[in-house]
Amino acid sequence: MNVRLLRLRVQRSLIIVPSLYVLAAMVLGDITPGIDKRGRFPLRIDVDIDTAQAILTATATGMLAFTGLVVSSTLLVVQFAATQYSPRLVLWFRRDALVKHAIGTFLAASIYPVVALRELTEGSGITPDISVALSLALLVGASVLFLALLQRVLDRLRPRNLLGRVLADGIAAGHDVYPQALGPDPAPPARDWETPDPRVIRLRSHRGVLASFDEGVLLQAAVTGDLTIELAPAVGEFLSPGDELFRVHGTGTFDDRKLLSSLVVSDERTIEQDPAFALRIMVDTAIRALSPAVNDPTTAVQALDTIGDLVRELAARDLSSSVARGPDGRVRVVWPTPSWDGLLDLAFSEIRAYGASSVQVCRRLRAELLDLKGATNPVRHPAIDAQLAQLDAATTLAHPPGSPDHELALGADRMGLGLQR
To answer: Which branch of life, at top level (predicted)?
Structure first.
């Protein structure tokens, strides 16, 4: 199986980690009564069989009900986050290690006493110190993880915290996808590796989104076969059977299966090699906050804060450097990525369209574009000027000359409202 796909499925699974906890609880529940039967230990709780049975029974029934309550409450929080911010955030809860370990501990704390109770019967001659102590330890651990889970869920509901996590992942992905910084005098990349009639490899299996690719596997195959391998779709594109996956330039040999094994075609985009998806999540959060049903322009302004940070980071990268070179310096692997104009459209166009009626959003958006222009290479400025011109037109349309808010809406303010420049 594709190792990257297997790793992705493990990260998203809510079954594997809790199942390991359940298995460990069953094993411990089977062996601890036997340890107690061998004799007394320095750990002394001094409980008899009847008391131990009462403690374990109460723990088992109480933790089972508690687990159901916590899981149902977490699902409600996830539903709220998906409705309030973006449904693409649901995947984050599925991949969160703390959620998996917390659920696993809750289940272990309820299953362990049930298994241990099989041996703790009248006349068994067992002094159940270890069995009861372990059950209490699991109960304490479950309580601590419940508080940690509560804190994590509440933190994830804070827009600033949530957007900050998306920003960090987006910056890391941007440095991975665009490995070179923008030079002082950038030039368009040469395509001297391109051949007029490349061999094409198409998708043969299930449809889905190109979630990621293994650059190392492709580079090795290209160097070995003296080829240049061009990835046809961009990471994040939806693919159907028959769509182009690779264009292989050169006359060397290659193994189709090895190239196909380098791709992860999944059911959903991830930020791992797709910084544009981080922008997509931030923009979704902003325009959802701008909908008439929510009417929360302050959250949209907070989203613009992080959008600006990510766009500024991407502006400093060489957006044409999405290539990998072999030891001889030749281009061996090429993959498509968004252009500078495309990134700006993704970051600002929808927010401008939905937020033009909000004075706060117009002012924050103008301040962000002006800051971006002041912090970037002049080669980036024409696209930024085009965005400023579009903002002028949208603002004037929503707040025409003579209206009370016309001049206010045309201002620039990094706080939206409250800090006139």
So the answer is: Bacteria
